[in-house]
Every structure is written in C-alpha cells, then in structure tokens.
Design brief:
The complex is a heterotrimer of chains A (533), B (309) and C (353). Chain A is α/β, with parallel strands linked by helices and 533 residues long. In chain A, strands 13, 16, 19, 20, 21, 22 and 23 form a seven-stranded mixed beta sheet that branches. With 309 residues, chain B is mainly α. Chain C has 353 residues and is mostly helical. Helix content of chain C is 72%, strand content 2%. In chain C, helix 3 packs across helix 12, helix 4 packs antiparallel against helix 5 and helix 8 packs across helix 10. Chain C starts with a strand and ends with a strand. Classes of the chains: A alpha/beta (533), B mainly alpha (309), C mainly alpha (353). At the B-C interface, helix 4, helix 5, helix 10 and helix 12 of B face helix 6, helix 11 and helix 13 of C.
C-alpha cells in the first residue's frame, strides 16, 4: 500500500505562442524516486517551476499530502514540504552556509535570531542524511559538489518531504554523481519522495523507480524503471527511434595549427596551470571535464579574452595575438559558452551582430564608415545558409530562440564574408574554438551544430571542442583530453578512452600530468569520504 | 599651522565637538545609503531627500509642531520619497542611477517650490528654536551635542544588530546578494527591498532635518551642498559595514573641521576655496583607495524581476 | 502587479510615450499650482505663452535651449555607452573657464592672432577642458572600477569652487567692482545674433549641427557601433573585438567636450564673461533631456527646446501670477520620472493580479 504524496492534475502553461506544458497529470508516491525525463525544452523545468510556485499554471491544480497547493507561491510550496534544488544554485556567495540554510526559516519580525539552535539542527540533518558541511564556511569558497550539498540541506532543513532535483548531475563528476545517488537512496529509505529531472538515460534508470517522459510539453509515457530500457526511453524522448551516433574518423589530419606550451593564466577560480596542447588541421580535439576546472580559462585564452601569465601560445608558428578582432581576421572562429551574455548583443539587430566580429575589415567598413549594404547582404547570407529563423535581420538579436542564436553565432564564425572586391571564395576557418556549442539546444539544433563542426573538420579546420557532455566529447572528438583543477591531460585518441578512465581523470584521480613539479595525485574529495562513519 | 598649534587643536574639546557635529548628518545619511545598498539598491535620491527632510522638518516646526515631530515629519518625507524610488527601481526595475537622480531633482525642486509658496517675499530666512545641547548628559563633548547626534550614534549599533543578528537583517543582506535565492526560500524580495529603501530614505530625511533643526535654525537653498553624494562615497569606503561607516564619517568630519580651522586661523596661505574643496577631494580619494578591494553586494544595481533570470 | 515583456513594441507607442508622460506630469503638477493659489488653466496658458507665444518668447526659449541641447547631447552619448556622466555641470564650467582663458586673458591683445584662429583655439580649449575633466572618472571606472556617478558628481562641486577661486584671482574682472565676474571675451570672439533684436545667437546652429553629427556618428560609423555595443553588453562587445576601454575613453572625451563647448558657447553667445551663476544646473538638466529624447541625438534637440520653453515660460508666468519659478524644475524632474515609466510601459505590459 503506497500513499500518494503529490498529485499534479491537468497542468497547462503557455508562454506566448509556446505551449510549454500541455495538460500534464502526474502522481508521486511516498518513498519513491520519480524521474522526469525529456529533452531541453520539453517542459520539465516549466513543470517544476509551476510545482514550486515560481510560475502560475494557466490551468490545472496541484495537491500535496492531500491538500491543494495555492498557485504561484513558493512559500506555500515550502510550507507543504516541497524542496527544490535548482540546476543553477541559488546561494549567496558572500554569506555563510548557515546563513544560506536558515534564511527564511524564522519569522522576519523576530527581534533576534537563534543561530546556535539552527546550527545544531543543521548538523543533525546533515548527519541524518550523510551530507557533511561546515556551517561557518562562506559559500564562495566551496566546491560545486559542496554547494549542491548545501542546496539539498536547505530543503531538508526546512522539513522537505518531497525533494525536486533539477539536472543535479550536470555539474558533477561520474564519481560525485554516484555519491549523490547514495544520498538519495538514504533519503528514500527514510520515507522522502524525490522528483529527479534529467535527460541522461543511464542515470535515470540507475536512480529512479518510475520514469515519466515529457516531449514537446506533453506527458508521452510513464513506466516503471525496471520494465523499460534505454532504447525505449530514448524513443519516447525524441519521438522516433534514434540510432547511436556514428563515429567518423578524421579523413586527413594535417599540420599543427595551434600549440600551447606550458601555458598558465592568472590565479582565480578558473585557471590554466601549465597546459600544453597541439591542435592539427582536420582534427577535432575534445576537452572533457567538470565545468569550472579551467575550461573557461582555456577557451577565453584562445578567444583573445585572457592573457597567459607564462608559457607560449602559437598559431601557425607565430605567437598568437591577444585581440579578438585580429584572431577573427586570421581565420579563428570562436563560439563562446554563453550565447546570451557573450556571444550576442541582444539589444542590437541581427545584422549588426552578424558583422560585429569583422566590422573593422575593409569588407564592412571603409574610413571608419560602416558599409551597411555589404553588412546587411552578409547577414542575409548567414541567415539563409545557416537557417536562422526569426523575424529578420533588422529585429533585435534577443528576439531569437536559443537555437537560432547559436546558428547565428556559428554562421558568422564559419561563413567567410569574402573580400572587399566582392569575390566570395569559400574559406574554411583555420581553427574553431567551440565552448559548449550545443548546451541547452534542442536535439535538432544539436545535430545541426555537431554536423557543422564535423563538416568544418573534414574541410580542413582544426577544431577545439570543450564540453561538459561526455557523450558529445566521445562522439565528436578525434582526440580527447581531460581537464582537472587547471591541469590539461594528454590528448589521446578517443577510442583509447573508456568512460571510467575519463570519469577518474575528471575527478583528478589519474596522475597523468606529471610535470617536473611533481605528480599531483590528490584525488578529489568525493561525497563518500566526507560522510561521517 | 605649526605642529605645536596642531597638537593644541587636537587637545581642544571644542574641535572635537565640531567634528561630532559635522559627522552627524553624514552618519545618518551613510546609514541610510548602507541600508538601501545592502538590499541591492543604489539610492542617488539621497541629495534631494536630505533637502526635502531639511525643509519639511523645519516647516513643521515653524508651523508650531514640537521639534521631535519635525524629525518624524522629515523621516516621513524621506520614507515617502524612498517609496517612490522603490516603486521605480524594485517594482518597475528601472535604472537605479536615473531614478535616483530623478528623485534628487524632484525632491529638491519640490522643496524649493514649497519654500517659495510658503514664504513668497522674505528677505532673511525665518528661524525656529533648534534642538538644545544635552547639558544634562554630563559627558564631555557629547553634552555639547543635540539629541539628534545621540540618535545617530545609537543607530549605528542598532542597525548593525539588525543586519547581523536578526532574521530581518539576514533577509536584507540576502536580497542584496542573491534575490533569487531569497525568493526561493520564501522571503518576499520586493517587500524587503522596498522596506529597506523606505527605512534608509527615512534616515536620509532625518539627516537633512539635522541641518535645519540642530545645526542651523533656518532653511537655506543649497544647504545640503553635496553631503548626500559624500555619503554615497562613504558607504563604499565603509565596505557596507555600519561600524566602519561611523568611523568613515568621523574621519571625514575630522578633516572637514580641520579645514574650517585652517581657513579661520588667519594665516591661511591658500584661497579659502581650496579648503572647501577638501571634503569632495577626500571623498574621491577614499573611493580610489578602496576601489581594488571593495566587495559590492553582489546584486547591487541588478534589478530583480520575479520569474526572470 | 506583474510586468510581462511585450514581444514587439510599436514605434508609434515609443514616439508617443514622452508626450503622454509630459501631459501626465502637467496634470499632476497642476496640484502644485493650486497650492500656490493660482488658477491652473491661466497658469499653464501663461507658461505656454511665455515660452512659445511670441517671437520674443520663442527667441528666449531658443537662447535657453542652446546650452541644454549641448549638455543633452553630452549625456546622450555617455549614457548610450553606459558611462553615467553626471558631471556635465562641471564640464560646462571648465569649458567656459578655458574659453575665457583663451579668449579674454590677454589684456585685450588677443596675442596678436587673427580672431578666427583665436576663436577656433578658444573652442578647442573649451572642448579639451571638458574632455579632460571627464577623462579622470572614465579611467578610474575602467581601471579601478570606481563608480563614475559619484566621482563626476563630486567633481562638479570641486570645479565650482575652482571657478570661484579663479574669479577671485587671476580671472577677476578688475572693473566689476568686487563682483565675482571674469574678464570679458574679446568682442571679435562673440557669436553673432541669429535674429536681430533678440538674444538668439549662432550657437543654435552649432547645437543643431553637433546633434546631426552625433546622430550620423552613432548610426553610420564603426565608433558608433562600438559605443552602442559597449552600452548594450560590454562583455559581448569585448568578445566581438570592440576595444571596450578605448571606446569608453573616447566616449568620455566626446561627452566632456560637448559639455565643455556648452560652456564656451554660453560665454561667447550670451554672457560674454563668466560668472558663478552662469548655469542654473544645465548639466543636470541635460540628463533629463537625454532621457526625454530616449537617448536619440535628434530627439535631444526637440527635448531641449521643450525644456527651455518650460523654464522660460515659468519665469514669465511667475512674474504675472506669482507661482514660484521652481515649478519649472518640478515639471522637468517629474517629466523625467514619468518618461522612464512610460517608456517601460511600451516594452512591458502591466498585469494586475
């Protein structure tokens, strides 16, 4: 006999023309892990945001523990025992763990705060579920895994009986993920219920009892985890049977285009530490790693946004300049991690964004005056060649969807504008720096972007692909290297790597970057070790 | 001024009385700015709010109200203008810079207009009987101050306690650091930010009232004269901490009092304007000194719209 | 209340927003007129007549609009790049100071230079003085992260004291009988009258030409793109290869130069010498003008004429029915706030729950 703790009935939500949730009904039982599976944009996040009161549903209602939940009120959701762990942590870096956890748990007008009691309670909860933390530590100094523990503790501290985890493993190493799954098991044993949101099939089957699949805003399937397979789930998720992506070896690997020789960047949370790497024409080198281990530093360095404090960066045998405009002119195509904040200038029109990287080239400006006709023609060509859908070249870039933004960025990076005499020789970039190029895109756009990168490689470009997505790294990379704590491992042929080996390297266990300063063999602290005996 | 004269000056209690008097409106104003900024909102309305507080507080007392009621009126005026700033910057998420400047212009213009409507044809500004010194206190230096100075000094530990030792203070700091996190934990972000701005602006109003009800006994045009802007600089200098804000205001007042003495000491070598420049120059220097290590509240000047990231 | 972003905001709504905001402001301000005991209709009619109702009124309004146009343009270009230059008041005064230094401080000799050359030098000096005054805060912002709002505001006070020092000292007009007033410009250097028998001078043409120039710069040049890109998203601009710091510095020079010219043109076109009350806050009002114009350089011309009309009209209304002239400042400040809200409502829709 199971009891239903949460009931969502006929939830619908529309954003403009997009029907994000279409008449979704779901139930959650006590002591159950329910996986919510779906592509990016399938409506998972909208659904849990409604559940947690961040959004108000257009229709439908929610019951928790037999009582109706008032819509649009996170406070009521908290009071009803629903806790949420967001994918992007909502913690204040400058405040302590205890501050973050006890925030909102006391009446605002209470003239004093009971910190000692709160601290004791926090430690008790942490112990109960095996989540070790230092209550006095500032959030800013914690690792990603530790921050996630604080997020979970926040919910448990408030007495959550239902925990919603939004893509919790996206920022963890495989080993850290395993430790998280153990914690979830503990919680379920103690009677908590969990909604686990993911688009990774393997871990969904590993961790959940039941799986609900969303596609295009609709609930398309529900099944017990033990009765289904990855293949079946994948088919539900994308709507048609998918074949495992085929690896195509690089047809003709050429000369070394870009080389890093023991390069370090300035200290900071994300830095490079004596990284060496060679990128060859006609080859994709993929960098794996948990984000925040120096990938951003590597990408920014090669995009001209950061200086090397030591070591040499060479491009075509010459020292590489540190100026984005020069890099573009030299044939380096750059795809930044953050489309919205870095890739495009949302308030400016699409056509200005299309030429922004090359505005100083004689094709698009003469004597400092912009050649608007040429610029708009080029923008139209990018729009057409890369299928950028939106309301035209004159509309602001922010009106584009994420996938179309990425196509615009990809298009301007890959499509050479030709020469100012009007000739349009097709020129492939010499080097492509792609940082998380498919992050957050729907499957169609992912395929498109990946296909373009492979096509550019086949045409002779050297490609550096930096990605958190292990599947992407292993399918696209001809050679794969792993980053951990600023160290860049040796790039080895993709086929030489096993998933386990990559996972260990991501956690910093494999001691393969043995430079003369000694071997860094400190294994990353895993959740297992942090648990009290 | 020779070294000997300088030491004599430091030993002279009247100098320190002046320092504390000059510091009072700065303490009140700086605490007001601090409250707003801790909650994540820049309040450039301070200059105008001080003018409005100075005017309405004084007008109430001139109209027969007791002095303390005048202070309450000034606080209320400040609070009301703060509410407008909160509506524009928190409710509508407009530019905090422009809204603040708009409030300063509006509050200043309204005060001057109100003054001219109330006193169309006066040659010398009408006066009131201001707060008396607190002789009953029996403490050196402090006894020669008015009760508003005492209030300002008491508010420093009070606000520090509120910020660091109450749930409300934690909520204020949290909405200034990460409003999404606060909202997720059930803290009403808009209400907390609005409350902090209203309270902070009320303090700015009292800072203005000090000028008309304690320091002088009348309302003049240009009497605030940039003190509000100096408070905004002092908050950065104080790293958003009440204790350091008090220290900063006192340090600042020390130099201001010093330049006044130098000006008056006859042997002034430089044009008097050079001395008058000192407070403003010092404020800029203070900003430069702390610029590298200033750790702004992370959500300062970032508007928060529910449901938007 | 919640705000929902509109998918498209219509151009008509954008154009009408300032007009609606100003009308709303006038309605609210009529309460203040009533407080002063004057009939609202008559007061506004007098204001309109005093600002725009006759050739003389119009000429006075245009005269007043000239410095406002320039400080408005100074704010426009700076705000476009998100450089919050609140120091136009100080830049205006150092511009005027520099103009007097070049154009008047040589015992009437003009250093034996041709007047045309001296005139050019005078304007250049004024522009340079304003530009350099803003350069400091801009560099402090770019290099140290010091908020430019506070530094530019504080510099206004410093500059005013400096001007006062100059007027007491080296620039003092010995014939002014102790009145703090600078020596006068050479007669050859003053700007000609645009309409005979009025005070409108050719500075108006300067303002208009600079507005058109700035508009073209913003719309058609690489620098214009850089300015807009840095203002809209500095990180993305840097990624695209825009030299962010250099752009901010150039914007600072441009903005400061425009404000400096405002001072020089005011001296050369209207007063002929420098006093401490030459500008009743033109620098600050320039911000209002820029916002009223939606940061559009050509809009700034219209906005400055409107604001000047309110200021001039209020003076004349005040003389007739005794409503204090400060009503104009209230109207201007309240317009700023209303326009902000109105512009927001063209982009968002307010939903009441």
């Amino acid at each position: 006999m199971t009891t239903t703790v949460l009931k969502l009935a006929n939830i619908s939500k529309r954003f403009g023309t997009l029907l994000a949730n279409d008449d979704i009904s779901l139930q959650l039982q006590a002591g159950e892990v329910l996986a919510l599976l779906g592509e990016n944009g399938a409506g998972k996040s909208t659904l849990v945001s409604i559940l947690f009161g961040h959004y108000t549903a257009d229709s439908g209602h929610i019951e928790a523990f037999g009582h109706a939940l008032p819509p649009g009120d996170p406070k009521a959701a908290l009071a009803a025992g629903i806790g949420m762990v967001h994918q992007h942590f909502t913690l204040a870096d400058n405040l302590s763990v205890l501050d973050n956890v006890m925030m909102g748990s006391e009446a605002l007008w209470q003239p004093f705060t009971r910190r000692r009691e709160a601290r004791a309670k926090l430690l008790a909860v942490a112990k109960q579920f095996g989540l070790g933390v230092d209550p006095g530590a500032k959030i800013g100094g914690l690792s990603v895994g530790e921050r996630q523990r604080v997020e979970i503790l926040k919910a448990l501290y408030r007495g959550a009986r239902i925990l919603i985890l939004d893509e919790p493993t996206a920022v963890l190493t495989p080993q850290e993920s395993e430790a998280l799954f153990d914690v979830l098991e503990q919680m379920v044993k103690q009677g908590l219920s969990i909604i686990f949101i993911s688009h990774k099939l393997g871990e969904v089957l590993r961790v959940s009892h039941r799986v609900a699949v969303l596609r295009g805003g609709k609930l398309v399937a529900e099944a017990a985890a033990k009765d289904t397979t990855q293949g079946q789930l994948a088919q539900w998720m994308v709507g048609h049977a998918i074949s495992a992506p085929q690896r195509r070896p690089a047809p003709n690997v050429g000369v070394s285009v870009c080389e890093l020789h023991a390069v370090s960047t300035a200290h900071g949370r994300d830095r490079l530490n004596k990284a060496s790497l060679a990128l060859h024409a006609g080859e994709i080198v993929a960098i794996a790693g948990v984000s925040g281990n120096g990938q951003a530093a590597l990408a920014e360095l090669l995009c001209g946004m950061r200086h090397a404090t030591e070591g040499r960066v060479q491009f075509m045998g010459q020292p590489m300049p540190n100026d984005p405009a020069q890099l573009t002119a030299m044939g380096i195509a750059r795809i930044p991690e953050d489309r919205h904040a870095v890739g495009l200038i949302g308030d400016l029109p699409v056509w200005e964004n299309a030429v922004s990287e090359r505005l100083c080239s004689p094709v698009f400006s003469r004597y400092s005056w912009v050649r608007r006709r040429a610029a708009r023609d080029y923008a139209e060509r990018v729009i057409k060649a890369f299928d950028v859908r939106g309301s035209g070249a004159a509309s602001p870039a922010r009106s584009l969807s994420g996938g179309n933004m990425q196509k615009l960025i990809l298009g301007r990076a890959l499509l050479h504008p030709g020469h100012d005499d009007g000739t349009t020789t097709h020129t492939v970039p010499r080097l492509i720096i792609a940082h998380q190029p498919t992050w957050g895109l729907d499957i169609g756009a992912v395929e498109y972007v990946q296909g373009q990168l492979i096509a550019a490689r086949d045409a002779g470009a050297a490609v550096l692909l930096i990605s958190d997505d292990l599947d992407e790294v292993l399918t696209l990379g001809d050679r794969v290297a792993v980053m951990h704590a600023g160290h860049l491992g040796t790039a080895r042929p993709a086929l030489d790597w096993s998933r386990e080996a990559i996972g260990l390297a991501m956690a910093g266990v494999a001691a393969e970057h043995d430079d003369q300063h000694g071997v860094r063999t400190h294994p990353a602290r895993t959740l297992d070790e942090a648990l009290p005996a | 001024m020779t070294g000997h004269e300088f030491i004599e000056l430091l030993a002279n209690p009247t100098f320190w009385i002046a320092v504390l008097r000059i510091a009072t409106p700065l303490i009140l104003g700086t605490l007001g700015v601090l409250l707003c900024e801790r909650a994540g909102v820049l309040n450039l309305g301070i200059e105008g709010i001080m003018v409005a507080g100075a005017f309405t507080g004084w007008l109430a007392v001139y109209g027969g109200a007791p002095l303390w009621l005048g202070v309450v009126v000034a606080a209320g005026t400040g609070g009301l203008l703060g509410l407008l700033h909160a509506f524009l910057t928190v409710g509508l998420a407009l530019s905090q810079h422009v809204s603040g400047l708009g409030i300063t212009m509006l509050a200043t213009a309204l005060s001057y207009y109100g003054y001219r409507v109330s006193f169309p044809k006066v040659a010398t500004p009408p006066t009131i009987t201001p707060f008396a010194e607190m002789d009953w206190l029996g403490l050196p230096i402090l006894a020669q101050q008015t009760p508003l100075t005492l209030l300002a000094l008491l508010l420093v530990p009070l606000i520090a306690y509120m910020l660091y030792r109450t749930p409300l203070g934690l909520a204020v700091r949290m909405v200034g650091e990460n409003p999404q996190a606060a909202e997720g934990q059930g803290v009403p972000v808009v209400a907390v930010r609005t409350g902090a701005i209203v309270a902070g602006s009320a303090l700015m109003g009292v800072a203005g009232a000090f000028l008309t009800l304690s320091a002088f006994n009348a309302f003049f045009f240009n009497m605030v004269n940039g003190r509000g802007w100096i408070c905004v600089a002092l908050v950065v200098f104080a790293s958003w901490r009440p204790g350091k804000a008090l220290l900063g205001a006192l340090l600042f007042a020390f130099f201001d009092a010093l330049q006044l003495r130098l000006q008056q000491s006859g042997g002034a070598l430089l044009p008097y304007q050079m001395y008058l420049m000192l407070p403003y120059v010092l404020s800029i220097v203070a900003l430069i000194l702390v610029a590298r290590k200033a750790s702004y509240p992370q959500a300062l000047m970032k508007p928060y719209r529910k449901g938007e990231r | 209340m919640r705000l929902e972003k509109r998918s498209q905001s219509s151009t008509l709504a954008l154009a009408l927003a300032p007009v609606g905001a100003v009308i709303f402001t006038l309605i609210v301000c009529s309460l203040l007129v009533l407080w002063a005991g004057a009939p609202v209709g008559q007061a506004y009619a007098l204001l309109l007549k005093g600002g725009f109702g006759s050739v003389f009124a119009l000429s006075e309004t245009l005269t007043r609009a000239i410095p406002l146009m320039l400080t408005g343009l100074a704010a426009t270009v700076a705000f476009k790049a998100r450089l919050f230059n609140i120091g136009a008041e100080g830049q205006l005064y150092v511009g005027a100071l520099a103009a007097v230094a070049v154009g008047g401080l040589h015992d009437g000799t003009g250093w034996a230079l041709p007047p045309a050359l001296l005139f050019v030098l005078m304007m250049l000096a004024a522009a340079l003085a304003g530009a350099l005054l803003l350069l400091g805060p801009a560099l402090m912002k770019a290099r140290l992260g010091v908020d430019e709002v506070v530094t530019t505001l504080l510099l206004n006070f410093i500059v005013l004291l400096f001007v006062s020092m100059m007027l007491d000292g080296p620039m003092k007009d010995p014939l002014a009988m102790g009145w703090p007033q600078s020596v006068a410009l050479l007669d050859d250097l003053t700007l000609g009258k645009l309409i005979a028998q009025t005070r409108v001078h050719t500075g108006l043409l300067w303002g208009g030409a600079l507005a058109v120039g700035l508009w073209a710069l913003m719309k058609f040049t690489v620098l214009g793109f850089n300015i807009r890109a840095v203002g809209a998203n500095a990180r993305a601009a840097a990624f695209a290869g825009v030299p962010v710091t250099r752009t901010v510095v150039l914007v600072a020079m441009l903005s400061g130069a425009l404000a400096g010219l405002a001072g020089a043109i005011e001296v050369a076109g209207r007063t002929g010498y420098l006093t401490l009350d030459m500008s009743p806050g033109y620098g600050y009002t320039g911000i209002v003008i820029a916002m009223l114009a939606g940061l559009h350089p050509l809009g700034a011309v219209a906005a400055s004429i409107f604001v000047a009309g309110v200021l001039v009209g209020a003076d004349s209304m005040s003389r007739v029915i005794g409503v204090p002239t400060y009503i104009a400042d209230v109207i201007v400040a309240a317009s700023l706030i209303s326009v902000l809200v109105a512009t927001l409502l063209t982009q968002y829709r307010a939903r009441w729950k």
